[in-house]
Amino acid sequence: MKTLFAAALLPLLGTVVACTGTVSPDSPPSSQNAAHGGGSCSFSVAPKKPAPAPAGASMQAQVEAQALGGLYSLIGEYLSGDASVYRGTLSATDNKTAVYGGSVPNGQVSGATSIAALWFAPVSSSDFYTDHPPRAKGESGVFVTHWDDGKAHMIFEQLASDKTTWVTQVDTDEIGVLDSTCSDCAPDFWTRPATMAFDLAATGSQPGFGEPIQITAKASFTKAEPCTIQLSDLELLDTWFGANSPGLALLSGFKLEGGEWVQHYQGTFDVPSGRCQEQTNYTIDLYFDPNDLGQYTGCATS
Known about the structure:
This protein is mainly beta. The chain is built from four helices and 16 strands.
């Protein structure tokens, strides 16, 4: 569901170089800290959402703009508040055994300490089971919960046009699809509530399986101040971006080099050539400051 890097990016050993494609502040660091009582903060300045490269920009400028957009999805939007982070507990059950057969255990979690993200993005119809809902389009609000050190996830989604809440089953290691629903059973995601509390029962079905899917979920979450968000939180939040859409685990691939967290990539860039497309290889370094999470950049080196 989330779009990070459009080009295929593969690990490549390389050397960090300085470049000019850094993030821009919304306000001076002093006012950012003052807004949070002057206490300790994991970043000095909240990043802005980066603009796309202008039409006709060089390949390097386009690659670096794309990288900044990806880093904003991984880090920046949680610090800026475009995506909200919540902390709390989750209890949930499903009836996989009855639906799929005795060899498939039911999903269950009880009072798990969890971290969650709420963000908004265009609907991806692949997130839903076939034809659920029909012709899904527009925007969606997605509440993704994580527990057990990122090994377990559960996802709740609301379409902008219909506040029905769609729910995945209780899953570990992998996420299926949004196949169950309930109405008026959760807060309106679009209000970005200060607390996310619900006690819901959702039902659904999948063609070929006669037993209805039955899911329960009881949640009690409170929105976290952006200043309290740590690197370890971001690593968990980026393990899954939506139903049927695993995270790229890019943050876990960064290595500490010279006081900065760095990841080196090699990718391909499509260049129009007459009626065809030619692919040009490039390398890019992505890095951020572990002592100031809002300071990050992506620099194409060739």
